[in-house]
Design the sequence.
């Protein structure tokens, strides 16, 4: 499907630093080792509601990864999906007497606008589940043929499920114990009690058509895809296996990323699906995770409509570390607006203190598991000095370019 417009990324003088990121599977910060082209797959939205600040924070974190790779001279093959057919979307459409296709298109269009406003660099490919059904069918058929999947014993709805042990490595990504897996599987879209499954943790691959639900004719019988296999098929089809990074929010550590990896590894016979699994912390509001199901949401589009500068939203979300669960608040936004004004005032000066060291510190901090709090402090320090006057003429332009290229903020 159509992605969104890109923005220029200035080239920053000086020496880039190779990126190191926390990998959930390895449970440590490790260097990434991309080739000329870095491959990144980030789990996209389920478009039944507008983009909230939690989504935005997650895409901003991976935007910084994207920018780190560009700084290091890599090409970036970035793929993102849109879960444009799934239970939550169908339920919302039914509740609001909306057409699920129209609802999905409308919210996806708004998402693109929000991403553009936040200056998130677009993925090379934004891929919907609906447009990928044939690829998903092929993957599920292969899993069935290879014995990694089976049909439940149900004459009316012989849905296809994944034998979660089929890859032989289930659990390597999340490292959760079985009670934790069972709890999260039930909480996050799984169906442990479905009759006819061989094991409660086996996950849905293909749901046979039910009356009133959308379905696609296929060699599996008319039906629609399960969730995890959507990301498996979209990623494998575009990046192959062993790509550099799979990302998303920490709510996807289990079950989603554990299963998408297990499906892929059962399909290809190769390990790993992704070389790094990277997860952003949850943005909360009023003490709870911001989520569509809880309804405690602040939408990017609402703030934009209220004339909030998207650069301030971006700076507010980057002021905390991407892996930390953290609350959104008006105070956070207020502090970010003040900071942005100070930075803008500083780069508008005709001269400033030599900025080579500031740029080096920015790169050091960002390449170190995206340490944005420290990176922002480095810019604060330069701005503070610049506002006292004096220095070299080239410095404000250098800081402006570095903040633009590395943090995505246009001063
Ligand atoms: N379509 C699936 C992924 S394939 C999905 O999880 N969609 S979503 O719309 O629910 O979430 C989109 C992205 O935002 C995911 O990466 C998710 O992990 C992340 N996300 C959701 N809520 C939050 C939150 N409160 N804070 C940070 N990230 C969040
Ligand atoms: Zn996904």
Sequence:
């Amino acid at each position: 499907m159509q992605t969104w417009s890109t923005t220029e990324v200035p080239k920053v003088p000086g020496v880039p630093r190779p990126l190191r990121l926390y990998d959930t599977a390895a449970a440590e910060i490790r260097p990434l080792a991309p080739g000329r082209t870095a491959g990144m797959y980030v789990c996209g939205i389920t478009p039944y509601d507008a983009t909230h600040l939690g989504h935005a924070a997650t895409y901003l974190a991976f935007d910084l990864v994207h920018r780190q790779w560009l700084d290091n001279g890599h090409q970036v093959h970035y793929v993102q999906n849109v879960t444009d057919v799934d239970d939550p979307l169908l339920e919302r459409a039914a509740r609001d007497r909306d057409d699920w296709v129209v609802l999905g298109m409308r919210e996806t269009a708004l998402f693109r606008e929000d991403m553009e406003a936040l200056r998130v660099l677009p993925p090379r490919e934004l891929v919907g589940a609906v447009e990928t059904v044939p690829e998903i069918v092929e993957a599920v058929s292969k899993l069935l043929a290879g014995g990694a999947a089976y049909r439940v014993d149900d004459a009316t709805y012989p849905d296809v499920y994944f034998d979660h042990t089929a890859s032989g490595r289930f659990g390597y990504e999340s490292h959760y114990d079985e009670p934790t897996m069972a709890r999260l599987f039930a909480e996050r879209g799984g169906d442990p009690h479905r009759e006819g499954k061989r094991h409660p943790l086996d996950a849905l691959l293909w749901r046979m058509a039910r009356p009133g639900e959308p379905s696609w004719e296929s060699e599996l019988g008319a039906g629609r895809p399960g969730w995890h296999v959507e990301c498996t098929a979209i990623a494998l089809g575009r990046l192959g296996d062993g790509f550099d990074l799979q990302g998303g929010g920490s709510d996807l550590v289990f079950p989603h990323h554990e299963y998408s990896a297990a499906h892929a590894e059962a399909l290809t016979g190769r390990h790993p699906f992704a070389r790094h699994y990277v997860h952003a912390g949850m943005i909360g509001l009023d003490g709870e995770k911001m989520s569509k199901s809880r309804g405690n949401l602040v939408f990017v589009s609402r703030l934009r409509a209220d004339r909030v500068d998207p650069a301030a939203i971006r700076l507010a979300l980057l002021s905390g570390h991407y892996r930390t669960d953290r609350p959104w608040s008006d105070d956070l936004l207020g502090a970010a607006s003040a900071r942005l004004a100070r930075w803008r005032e500083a780069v508008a000066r005709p001269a400033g203190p030599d900025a080579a060291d500031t740029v080096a510190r920015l790169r050091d901090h960002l390449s170190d598991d995206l340490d944005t709090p420290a990176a922002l402090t480095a810019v604060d320090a330069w701005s503070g000095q610049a506002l006292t006057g004096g220095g070299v003429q080239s410095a404000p332009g250098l800081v402006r370019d570095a903040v633009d290229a590395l943090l995505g903020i246009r001063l």
About this structure: The longest helix spans residues 53-71.
